[in-house]
Every structure is written in structure tokens, then in C-alpha cells.
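Hi R.,

As promised, here are both runs. First protein below:
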Amino acid sequence: MNIDIAGLPADRIVFSVSPLTELGNALHALSEPGHHPGLHGWATATSSALEPGLADRLLEAEFLWRHSFSDVFMPFAGIPGGDGRPGATLAEDLDILDRLDDERFVTTALEFTCAGLYGDGAASPLTDPAMRDRALELAAARGPRQVRFTQRLLADPAPVRRWIRRLFEDCDQAFFADTWRRVSVQLAADARYKTQVLRHKGVREALGAVSAALTLDEEAGTLSVDKLSEARTTAVDPDLGTGLTLMPSSFGWPHLMVVYAPGWRPVIQYPVRLPDLPAPASVELLQRRMEALAHPMRMRLCRNLARSAYTTGELADSHRITAPEVSRHLSVLKKAGLITTRRRGRYVLHQLDLTVVARIGSDFLEGVLR
């Protein structure tokens, strides 16, 4: 995923925090606790304390945050010519959400059914009959709750918008106000720190402090985000407002979310790094590791290398293949960072890095969820 930032002044890059965006992350964690193992305790306690009526309403709308993260949680990015800053309070964020016109709100709220069309800047289902039919068809594939929501939204957006705002306000009263008071201090401190890095050390250092998944090509004026999804957007658009917003999240790990819809300001929401978590593997490295382990002979070699250190000759004798063949397989494993090599006298010993291999499952999960 690439963001064009050629010619973007540093003062148009904003680090900020948003109560509404973090509420969306918290709701996602409640719906998908398996994505967030570090939040199991919070999710269990919060879910068990929910009043049944509110729990039912959350279930009715959870497709807005469970499987896809609707941009209704980042409305400040959809205000043409805006400064890229969210509200200081949830009420202010919701006021910004109210400022989105109906077409933009509806298209965003239906992102769960037509994410691909949404990202391509397709016509609004409010005004285009073909898109309306397509939205209802895609909603039907998702389930009856999605169909009812889509029908209500397309018939009259106003009451649905009021219903969603009231739902978020009730979440705030039930659990999120206390949660926000607890996490907002850390998030604000992170945003202030990275703003200082941006001012004093420049864009490259600031982006490097955000995530290893961000790569800046200053010559091309491109910011690359290491995600499996493929998309391109720009932070330099004189008609829509120039700028890039970066937002820390306490509930977001392992997701690294990017707003890239046409007509919306690009936003990167990144998880605040926890000191006990290793740096995430790149998508390219993860793919290389999985391909390396997919070969039957390399899997058999790993069976030996997981138990002890072996020389090339020992592995060749054990598996009845030539030493050059073993060397080629070891080279693939080494390029993938799966084995370590050390010299003992005239012998070179190879061994599987068990710590790295043990991380592959979580690396894969983090990679596809990023």
C-alpha cells in the first residue's frame, strides 16, 4: 500500500488522538477477542458488565467494526479541506461525524458490504440504482441483520445516523469513558513525542518511530505501508486538502489501519508499541519463511536441525542426498532467517532457530491482520 507524499510539508503531517477511533478499536476487541490476546481480561469484564439492551444493539451493528473497520470512526478524514485533527472529546468527534454529508456517510457505513467498490470511489448507492442493488445484494450475502441495516440506511439515512450516534454515546456512558480516561494519557504522550521527533529530526525519523512497517522513499515521494492489501492514495490534493494524520492506538494491536478512500485524507492508525512484544516481521519475510518451510526436504532437514546442530555432510549422509543439495536447502532456510550457523574448528554447524520458528504462527496472524 502506497501513499504519495511528494512535496508534502512536514507541518501538514499531524500526530493526534481520537476518542471515537479508539472506541471503534475497543468495540472490535470486544467482538474479536482472538485478534487481541492481551485484552482478554478487559474484553471479558466489559462484555459481562454490559446491560442486555446495549449488548443487543451492539450485536445489531457489529459489522461496522468486527470484520472491517468502518471509516465512520474517522470522520475528520472525510471533511474536505479539514485540518486532519479529530475532536478532543467523543462528543466533538460525533459532531464531526454529523457533518459528513449523507452520500459520504452511507458509502462509508456500507463499507462492510462493498469495501472494494468503496475504495475505488464508486458511485453512491443513494443516487445510483445499480449501486443500490449491488449494495443490497452484497448485504444479503452477509446476513439478515446487514440487509435490514442497509435497507433502513438507503431508505432514510437520518434516523440511522441518529441511532448510531446514540449507540456510541451509550457505549461511552456504559464503559468507554472510564476506558478512555485510562488510555488517553498514554496515547496523548505518544502523539506529543512523535510530534517532537517530526519537528526536530524530520519525517523519516518520525515515521520510523511509528512502525517498522512504514518505509519512506524520499526520492520518489512515496510512503509504503507493509500490508497485504494493495492500494494507492495521495496526501497531496489541493481540492481535498493536503496532509497526513497518524494516530496511536492502545486497543489496535496488531492492526495497522490506513484510510485510503478517494476524497478522504490519508490516516495511519498504529498500535502503541508494547515493550514485551517483538518487532513484527515484514510481509515479504513472512512469505519467504513459509515458502522455505513448505518444501518436503527442508521440513525433514528441520527435524534434525531442531534437535541439534549438524554439519552439511552429516545432513547429506542422514538424508542420502548430496552435500551441494543440502547446501542449497540450507541457503534458502538461512535467507529466511530460520537457521543459525556457527563454526567449531574446521566444521560449520547449522541449527534451527526455535524462537523464530515459534513466532511464525503469530507473525502470520499479525501479518494478515495488519
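And here is the second one, sequence first, then its C-alpha cells:
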Amino acid sequence: MTDLLYSETEDDLRAAVRSLVAARGDTAALAARAEAGSPYDPRLWASLAAEMGAAGLLVPEKLGGQGASHREAAVVLEELGRGVVAAPYLTSSVVATQALLSLDTDTEAVATLLAELAEGRRTAVLAVPLSAAPDGPLTEGAGRVTGVADAATADVLLVLRADGLYAVEAAQAVVEPLTPLDLTRPLAAVTAGEGGARLADAAAGAAAVRSGLLAGAGLLASEQLGIAEWCLEETVRHTGERHQFNRPVGSFQALKHRMAQLWLEVVSARAAARAAADALATGSPEAALSVAVAQAYCSRVAVHAAEECVQLHGGIGMTWEHPAHLYLKRAKADEIALGTPGRHKEALAALVDLQAP
């Protein structure tokens, strides 16, 4: 039977990441950096990726990684979601890394790049829009590709062309920063042009890209879970401290019902996200099914939790100084990342042969 409970190793990893985020993940400083156009904290990324080794969780030990699995990477993303951390973990350590792992890792170019990513020395991103779904059309990167997440700070771009998948140095491409809704996950338009090291032929390259997008969509559900958990906990805390009519507003029955409903949604989101991570970790033939369920559900739970957080905080929830807006914007951006909930529902319906009326 599938065990979705967290292992002792996963709990220890969670504690380490949470401690790091608490020490270095100041949301006020994040908001200021994001507004200035540079949301990343290089010291935090160095500690997470290199010192803690989180960047190499998916990479086997023989290739320089930690030899862990998607379950452990999901725990990291939960904590990054809770802290609304700006870091290229999803795009580089999950999506790009999974795509490379789907190739022939005995190839020197692939093995070398995987080792560099695992050690946190470099980052890589797929040159596809953040909105690309695992089963959707793949944009060939020979032209201009818009909405590429974390491309502005990446060292390497993985570009799918008509004749194969290429690793292109970012310095050889034209990267134009865009203004996204979620300032903590920068987007850019990328024009890779020609050149680069060929990693695979067209068929293998397309399959690798889809594998990366599937893993990204599945583990994005864990980030969304972390967002929802923080929003619920912060809302319960705030409504327990804020008083009206000489009573905590959290004691009012209407608000109790709203927060209880949100708790049920978060618990269900945890089950869906864990199932997706476990299916990816075990190579389950139903991985695509679990990922579609997780994304169709967790996307909307994260948005609902963030909306409730803003509203139930009252006036302060609408201010720039309070971090609620960061969570709402991340949740809304995540909702359309790697496939919308509607797209994943369509994929789910096709997988279980459930025809629309």
C-alpha cells in the first residue's frame, strides 16, 4: 500500500528548510527586492542548494546528487511555498533536472550539467512558457518564447528545436525580463537562436521536456499546499488576536465556518499533493493521473486560502507591508503555471475515459 505519511527523513529535511527560511526568508525584504526587480537572495539559494544539498535531491549519487526522490523534493517545495521564497528550485532543481534525468545520463554533456545543477553551482531552465502543460503543445525554442520562468538568472537554457534538445549558455541567448503578476518568480522572453550543445534528438528531447513538465506540475502542488497552510495558520492566528465587541473575531460563528471549510480543503490538498509526489517517486504508471488530480485541486485551494487570508485580515491584509499579497499573487500565478486547473481536468477526464457531455 502507498504510504503518504511523512518519513523521519522527510520531517528532518522539513525542519532544516523551515529553519533556513525563518532565518533568511524575510518577507519584507523579499517584497522590497521583488519591487526592485531582483527578488532572489543569493545567500539563501547557496545555503539551500549547495550547503544543504537540496538542489541535488532528484539526482543519483553516482551523478553527484543526493539520490533521494520526488517525495523529499516535495517537502522542500512545501516549505518554500510556506515562506513564499523566491528561488529557482522548481524550475531548475525539479523541471530542468528531471528533463535531464530522462535523457541518456551516460552522455558527458548531460552528466556534467546534472552534476553542476546538483551541486548548486549552476541553474538551468526549460525554454518553454511557465504556462506549458505536460500534455500540451511544445514550443520550439528557435524563435522567441515568452513567459519563461527564472530565465533571467539562469546559467543554461534547455532549448527544444526541430532537430533535438540543446543546452544553450544564457550568455548566448537574448533574455528580455517581463513584468509578471508574481514578482517573486520572474518571467522573461527568450530568444535562443542557434548554437549550444546537442543533448538528444527531437523525439527523446520532446519526451524529456514532457517528463520535466510532469514532475514540475506534480511538485508544484506541494508548493501550493505550503501556500495554503501558511495562509490558514496566519488567518487563524490573526482572528484569534483581533478583537471586536470585546471578543476575538475568530470566535464568530461565520468566521469559524469559513476557516473550518478551508482546513478541510487544505487536508485534502495535502493528500492529493503527497499522492502525486509519491507516484512520481515510485515511477507509478498512474503518475500522470495523480498529477492531474493534484493540480486540478491544489491550484484552487491555494487561491482560496490566499483570498481568505487577505479578506479576513481586514484592512491590513490589503497593505503592501503585510505579506498576504505575496501569497495571493504567488497562488494566482501558480494556478496557471504548468497547466490550468481546467486543462488538468481535461487530462484527467481523458485518462479515466470520462467523456464530457
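A quick note on the second one: The two ends are 35 Å apart (CA to CA). Let me know what you think.

Best,
J.
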